[in-house]
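Box S1 | Example of a co-folding query
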Amino acid sequence: MPTADSPASAANGSGEALPGTPGILPRPEHTVSRSQIWENALKVLYRLHRRGYQAHLVGGSVRDLLLGREPKDYDVATDATPEEVRDVFRNCRLIGRRFRLAHVYFQDGVVEVATFRGSGSDPEGEGKRRSEDGMILRDNVYGTLEEDACRRDFTVNALYYSIADFSVLDYVGGVDDLQAGRVRLIGDPEQRYCEDPVRMLRAVRFAAKLGFFIEAGTAAPIPSMSSLLEGVPAARLFEEVNKLFLAGNGVTTYQMLRRFRLFERLFPETAELLSQEGDHFPHTFLTHVLEDTDRRVARDLPVTPAFLFAALLWHPLQQERRGLEAEGMAPDDAMQKAAAEVMGRQTGRVAMPKRFSEGAREIWSLQARMERARGKRALRLLGHPRFRAAFDFLLVRGRSGEADPDPVAWWQDLLDTPSGQRPAKLGLKSEGGKSRSGRESA
Ligand code: ATP
Ligand code: MG
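Box S1 (continued) | Returned holo structure for adenosine-5'-triphosphate
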């Protein structure tokens, strides 16, 4: 990959990012070709350009194209305001309060169009708002392309592909960092983490995803600043957690999150058990779960937050359940109550939509039922919509030395039996030749 002519220095030492002369890579000097860009992203760029607006591809798509990777989604930056963007596209909706932007919809996806953000303060006080400790609560003051580059998070995420002349613009030394495999924050790291603590998670996510290292100045403040994550809305953290663990690099991400003391801010009870584990069970189990998840993502198989959260909270659940049983509660009641308690405390930190927390609880409650069920009950369980997930969960527990191998082998044997022969295998009369397990998803 070529180097940009003169990547400008992004920071002035006081934390304020300074716009500079961009390093310009003209078309012949970089590898981004229109043939690799999703046609609908090109349509959006061209249409804005024809209407007299600036239009650039920016962020992950430019980064990934320069690395020869397939972009996950396409972001466009423009000097058109969100309202002007809406006037250009019929298939467009404006979204977001904190960060207002336009979504342009196509049959097979969305192009996100954001107006250049400015660095200046907002005299009206409504467009840009910060909390007392510097967290950006709203960022809707518009600015220039240079200012937009400097308010982005990492240098490798602040490269622009211009539809006007097909050049790549680099205001912050992003091309150098891409070549070096370096995740580097733009501006003063501490200030940038105060503005938005989620950037600490993003640093880890990009390092794990791209196989990059986190530059020393960007990495150093993270452990001592990780507590700032507690001020981030729990719903936003749910989105981030999914991107961290369900994007195909879960094992590496998990190791880095623990090293940077970020994991304990997301899953405090799990982290506490990990820190005192004598028998390595929680760590082994979680590593197996994340390895499986990474393999599934690599094979394009579906993955669900319900399974992930069931796994991440499994040990806190066991601890809670044991405590309740020790107080004399019956096992099934203890299990129910423990699930509600653990899930309730966790959603205060990372808020998952109800369908996922319910899903996780079903996977949990199916564990005990699978360990007990035989005969007709077993046949019925096979038809449970969460059976497959619950069985996969049981398998990982077995592999991690946490579940009795007998029921695992017993269920595996049943699943290996053709469905028509299962009733007989269970000592049941077949129901007119057709078993209930016809409904099973396994
Ligand atoms: P991915 O491949 O995961 O989509 P991405 O870099 O495109 O990676 P997005 O979350 O889609 O990440 O964000 C798009 C761009 O918006 C980023 O590349 C970055 O320039 C900017 N951005 C996103 N989140 C932040 C943030 N918290 N602070 C500053 N800039 C951000
Ligand atoms: Mg993106």
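Confidence is low (pLDDT under 50) at residues 5-18, 432-442. Residues 59-60, 72-73, 75, 152-153, 157-158, 196, 198-199 surround adenosine-5'-triphosphate (ligand 1) (CB under 6 Å).
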